[in-house]
Write a structure and sequence with these properties.
single chain; 445 residues; membrane; transmembrane helix; ligase activity
């Protein structure tokens, strides 16, 4: 039995509220803030279980929901074994941190479960996308205003922002990653609004009218949202945040032109407008040259992130199969640190290395395959489905995944609950756009 429409409306709105809320209290990257999120997700789950019991509804309404959750269930079980020590060869060097990671993983799994079960229509899918965009616009506006008026400390928590926008995040690169993922979804949605009809021959007047219509029509709200978020992204001064985003935009746009059966005729002009209008014109106003200068000034001699990666390799070699325990990088790494660094590293600044240190190579590979399969689903949606909304959101999801794969080589974005929840939402959207029925039965393919 499928969930009732009224119940699903309630749960989706509750999840949308969480998406908007989670970055506000320091990206929920404090125990008190994350505890609030945990209680919220657990409370929603209890309500959902009660609803299933009363309505005699199955826990999974579609077969694909089980497969979507399978890697998270496996990760939760593996972390439980690490924490409990039931298997002598699988344990942790930091019981407290592993316990915290176990609770986080379970709550993330519950969130995916609720989202996959209750997002049952294109309308609800739009609600989720609206929540992502609204959340990012709030962060971008807040971070940009604080940066431009140059306050010495943030007005709420008293953090020093310096010359980089952070929004309500503690770390500017997490802020940049959050915005880049959200821009990807907004851009994909905007693509779904483009016309796909093609004229027999090229008409410059029709072409310019199409460009003008795209930029100033009812789509202007989405377009303005993208501009606001890109301003925040540029003001973050994040090197890989900016480089990863524009690289992902180019890669997925070229990919879409190859696999779209009937690509929107305004896709190329829209991508070009992002570079000309947003990167060059808007970027020049808000200091994109500072980001460029930071990239040019990057030196392996001055950077110590590569030293952290180098010193982490022996840890992986010694515990490549089972890892040292979820959340244990901060505990185990100082024992292998060859020399003191100029900065303090409680994370590896490389998610691939950190996951391998904490969970082992096998579990890291399984999670990596899960992410790549979600990317494959997004590409299949762009190729197979006829629904413009689903194809557009799939484009945005693919772009977000490519960006995250790039950005995670130099940062620890998945250690921030706000970024992790957003990324898991995007991975779930890959499954939803692939398997949700269309509002129009003739386009349910």
């Amino acid at each position: 039995m499928k969930p009732s429409l009224s119940a699903s409306n309630f749960f989706i709105l509750a999840l949308c509220f969480l998406i908007i809320w989670i970055p506000i209290p320091l990206a929920s990257n404090r125990i008190w803030a994350w505890s609030m999120v945990e209680f919220y997700i657990i409370a929603l789950t209890i309500v959902h279980l009660g609803f299933c019991l009363v309505r005699k509804q199955l826990l999974f309404t579609q077969p694909w929901q089980k497969y979507c959750l399978l890697p998270i269930l496996f990760l939760s079980l593996f972390t439980l074994i690490q924490w409990s020590g039931l298997v002598s060869s699988i344990n942790t060097v930091d019981v407290f941190q592993t316990k915290q990671q176990l609770i986080k993983t379970v709550c993330f799994g519950l969130f995916i479960w609720l989202l996959s079960v209750h997002c049952i229509s294109a309308r609800m899918l739009r609600w989720v996308c609206v929540a992502i965009i609204v959340s990012a616009c709030i962060q971008a506006f807040y971070g940009s205003v604080l940066n431009l008026i140059n306050l010495p400390t943030s007005p709420i928590f008293g953090f020093i922002d310096g010359d980089r926008a952070k929004g309500s995040f503690v770390y500017q690169n997490h802020f940049a990653n959050f915005l880049a993922l959200s821009i990807s979804i907004a851009f994909g949605w905007l693509i779904s609004e483009l016309k796909t009809t093609r004229s027999g021959r090229f008409d410059f007047r029709t072409f310019m009218l199409g460009v003008f219509e795209t930029l100033i029509s009812s789509k202007i709200i989405l377009r303005l949202a993208i501009v606001i978020m890109i301003i925040g992204l540029i003001l973050s001064r994040s090197r890989m945040g900016n480089a990863g985003f524009f690289t992902a935009l180019i890669v997925v746009s070229l990919l879409a032109l190859l696999i779209y059966r009937n690509p929107p005729k305004m896709l190329k002009p829209l991508v070009i407008s992002i570079f000309i209008l947003d990167l060059i014109i808007v970027g020049s106003i808000f200091g994109v040259e500072k980001v460029k200068q930071r990239i040019e000034d990057t030196s392996f001699a001055a950077e110590t992130r590569d030293d952290v990666v180098r010193d982490s390799i022996p840890i992986i070699e010694q515990h490549w199969l089972t890892g040292n325990g979820a959340g244990s990088f901060y505990t185990v790494f100082p024992q292998y640190q060859s020399v003191p660094y100029s900065s303090f590293y409680d994370h590896a600044h490389n998610e691939y290395i950190q996951f391998a240190v904490e969970y082992g190579v096998v579990v890291t590979a399984i999670l990596g395959l899960w992410v790549l399969y979600a990317l494959w689903l997004a590409c299949r949606t762009m190729y197979l489905r006829n629904n413009k909304l689903y194809k557009g959101i799939a484009f945005g999801c693919a772009m977000a995944i490519v960006h995250m794969l790039i950005h995670c080589t130099v940062d620890f974005n998945l250690q921030s609950p706000a970024n992790t929840l957003l990324f898991l939402t995007i991975l779930t959207l890959c499954w939803l756009v692939r398997y949700l029925p269309s509002d129009n039965p003739k386009k349910s393919r």
